[in-house]
């Protein structure tokens, strides 16, 4: 068995080796560090006991083109909105309706009796059985308080019991000619004519038959009431219409 002391030199040697190896490692590391990192000169520590003297630099600003304050744009005052009054619409007054110019009455109508002044009556029906034509004798009376004139012929009509016209002479039958005599019809005065009716080819009309007279120039229409059973003409021409006419008025 070896004594502890006998082993001591080996341990010391090993220790030296370790120390030498460590020192070499440190040197190598130091060299590597010094090569990579530049050395920095030591900075002198400032003397804290003496306060630094402040340096004041006065700079007078010189206005330059860019230092000129931008001019404030002038804002033009906004004019108040113009309020346009609504257009005044002038409504033209309605055109006056022209008054129709009265047509002067024909000279031949002046003084003639109007339908409103007259009354009409049937005096009698005249005709043989199966006769063609038959006749109605009629009387025209001035029922007014003023005298008026009768002249020319009237438009004769035959009416059934309902007042429907079944035979008409036509408006052209109411005529006044220059050659027609003028008859003055005083109040209650009378004048006469004969109505001729022919060729009735239809069923017998409903009785009681009436006679009407239409005056010329639009002066009116007068209807005579029925008197009993009227004569009805026979049919002499089945292809023709019934006919009716009247003579000129005579006193």
Summarize this structure briefly:
The protein has one helix spanning 8-36; strands spanning 118-126, 134-142, 148-150, 155-159, 165-168, 183-185, 190-198, 210-214, 221-224, 243-246. It has 251 residues and is α+β, with helices and mostly antiparallel strands.
Describe this structure in words.
The chain is α+β, with helices and mostly antiparallel strands and 251 residues long. It has a domain at 110-246: Immunoglobulin-like, CATH 2.60.40. Helix content is 12%, strand content 22%. The protein has one helix and ten strands, in the order H-E-E-E-E-E-E-E-E-E-E. The chain has one helix spanning 8-36, and strands at 118-126, 134-142, 148-150, 155-159, 165-168, 183-185, 190-198, 210-214, 221-224, 243-246. The strands form three sheets. Strands 1-2-7-10 form a four-stranded antiparallel sheet, with no helix packed on it. A four-stranded antiparallel sheet has the order 5-4-8-9, with no helix packed on it. A hairpin with a 6-residue loop joins strand 8 (210-214) and strand 9.
């Amino acid at each position: 068995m070896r004594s502890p002391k006998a082993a001591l030199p080996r341990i010391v040697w090993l220790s030296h080796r370790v120390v030498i190896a460590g020192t070499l490692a440190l040197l190598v590391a130091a060299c590597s560090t010094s090569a990579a990192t530049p050395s920095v000169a030591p900075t002198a520590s400032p003397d804290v006991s003496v306060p630094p003297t402040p340096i004041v630099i006065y700079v007078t600003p010189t206005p330059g083109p860019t230092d000129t304050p931008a001019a404030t744009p002038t804002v033009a005052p906004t004019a108040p909105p113009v309020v346009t009054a609504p257009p005044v619409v002038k409504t033209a007054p309605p055109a006056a309706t022209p008054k129709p110019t009265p047509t002067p009455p024909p000279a031949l109508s002046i003084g003639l009796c109007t339908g409103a002044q007259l009354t009409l009556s049937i005096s009698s029906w005249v005709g043989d059985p199966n006769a063609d034509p038959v006749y109605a004798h009629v009387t025209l009376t001035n029922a007014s308080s003023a005298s008026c004139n009768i002249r020319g012929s009237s438009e004769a009509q035959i009416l059934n019991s309902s007042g429907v016209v079944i035979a008409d002479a036509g408006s052209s039958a109411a005529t006044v000619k220059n050659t027609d005599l003028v008859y003055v019809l005083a109040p209650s005065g009378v004048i006469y004519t004969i109505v001729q009716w022919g060729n009735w080819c239809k069923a017998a009309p409903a009785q009681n038959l009436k006679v009407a007279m239409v005056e010329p120039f639009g002066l009116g229409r007068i209807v005579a009431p029925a008197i009993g059973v009227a004569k009805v003409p026979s049919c002499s021409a089945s292809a023709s219409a019934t006919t009716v006419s009247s003579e000129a008025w005579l006193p």
